[in-house]
Design a protein that fits this description.
single chain; 291 residues; mainly alpha; three-stranded antiparallel β-sheet; 65% helix
């Protein structure tokens, strides 16, 4: 029998409260676990939860907002107000030139990451397990997508890839090179004996900046993964302590952490775009206008 059939034909589902002591005390696995395979590709428990959240988000927005109208319905007004509130914070960071192109990316990032972070608090997520008789190992049926390093890295890579495209479109290659390697000093205020050697200094600093840019996907993904994975482990541990009921205080803490991490991720992507796009012009004039 193939491995695919073994996973589908021989699972045993149980609630987490009925798990053996060894399985209950093991905490959350560091990596997402494959539930089955499609065409040789694994479908993990975090992928299942990501798909559920994405489909649920689309359906809820369609049901609440409906078809956009000139005179908005109550649901459309609520959605528009939430969007406006987020944009009021982000627009000064991104700048007027790139905000229109950045809006879909930043709104999608914040909403999707927020719901993914909170999905671990849904009853059954992380607490309903499947045991394969083929391997004898316990696995979560559903796991928050952001508690999987693959998911957070994908979010970071896509956001920075789209952000780079926005920067290239609204700032250009010249602005990028000047921002990284250009001499930011004003020639009128700096003696020539100091101004021209500063080109080498800013070039060397630019090389360090290139290294930091290369590490942005790693820092973004590790920060989000670490906080959500740590929260999942905390909730699992508290379930073991609070035998008589739900660890409600920790639920509220995870709601706050989930919101903060979604906001920080979106804010950092906004800053990366705005560092170059939020200039009125190129060269020294753009730098002066920025300050």
């Amino acid at each position: 029998m193939s491995r695919f059939n073994k996973f589908l034909a021989l699972p045993l589902l149980v609630a987490a409260t009925n798990l053996p002591a060894a399985a209950e005390g093991s905490g959350v696995a560091p990596m997402a676990e494959p539930l089955f395979r499609v065409g040789g590709l694994p479908v993990t428990n975090s992928m299942i939860m990501s798909w559920v959240v994405a489909i649920g988000l689309i359906l809820v927005i369609r049901l609440v907002a409906g078809k956009p109208k000139l005179i908005p319905s109550r649901g459309q007004a609520v959605v528009e107000r939430l969007i406006e509130s987020l944009m009021e914070i982000i627009e000064p960071i991104v700048g007027p030139k790139a905000i229109k192109a950045s809006r879909p990316l930043l709104l999608a990032l914040f909403t999707f990451i927020l719901l993914q972070n909170w999905s671990g608090l849904i009853p059954g997520v992380g607490t309903i397990m499947m045991r394969s008789r083929a391997t004898g190992e316990w696995m979560e049926i559903a796991r928050p997508g952001n508690a999987d390093m693959n998911g957070t890295f994908a979010l970071a890579f896509v956001s920075l890839f789209v952000g780079t495209w926005i920067i290239l479109r609204y700032a250009g290659v010249k602005a990028i090179l000047f921002d990284i390697f250009g001499n930011k000093a004003d020639k009128r205020d700096v003696p020539a004996a100091l101004y021209y050697p500063m080109f080498l200094i800013f070039f060397l600093v630019g090389l360090l900046d290139v290294i930091s840019i290369m590490f942005r996907p790693i820092s973004l993904s590790f920060r989000l993964y670490g906080n959500i994975f740590g929260g999942e482990n905390l909730i699992h541990s508290m379930y073991g302590i609070f035998k008589w009921g739900l660890p409600v205080p920790f639920y509220f803490m995870e709601l706050l952490v989930g919101f903060v991490q979604a906001f920080v991720f979106t804010l950092l992507v906004s800053v990366y775009i705005g560092l170059i796009c939020n200039h009125e012009g190129g060269g020294h004039d753009g730098e002066a206008a920025h300050h």
